[in-house]
Amino acid sequence: MGVTRKVLKEGNGVDKPKKGDKVTIEYTGNLYDETKADNNYRGTQFDTSKGRGDFETQIGVGKVIRGWDEGVQQMSLGEKSILTITGDYAYGEGEVELKAIN
After folding, report:
1. Which of 47, 79, 88, 90 would disulfide-bridge 75, Cβ 3.0–4.6 Å?
2. Least confident of 19-33, 60-74, 81-95
3. Which residues of 68-90 are buried (b: 16+ CB within 10 A; e: fewer)?
4. DSSP readout, 3-50?
């Protein structure tokens, strides 16, 4: 349970964000697919910052999912990694209620 990190490209190894730092990241979110081991288990894409511009946020303070709060703080500047995040560190088992159709 939690977050694991697979480094695809090493960063500078020195500069790591700390709790409360503002970070700028580029990301792509994919569903985990156990049949796609040859593609790092990346299944259907559900979100990306590519084409919309980099994403800026404070890290480690609950403004993003817990998996990002913890995983991004393990990275160093320039690093590119795959963060595999369990549901309890992502959006969890949420409920959806359709309130209206406009």
Report:
1. 79
2. 81-95
3. bbbbbeebeeebebebbbeeebb
4. EEEEEEE---SS----TT-EEEE--EEEEE-TT-GGGTTEEEEEEE-T
Q: Tell me: the pLDDT tens digits for 10-52?
A: 999 999 999 999 999 999 999 999 999 999 999 999 999 999 9
Can you list the pairs that 39-44 forms with residues at least 24 positions away whose Cβ atoms lie under 8 Å? 40/6, 40/82, 41/84, 42/82
Collapsed DSSP state (helix, strand, coil) of residue 94: coil
**pTM of structure:** 0.85
Residues in the chain: 102
Burial class (CB in 10 A: 0-12, 13-18, 19+), 55: middle
Q: Is the dihedral of CA 50, 55, 60, 61 positive or negative?
A: negative
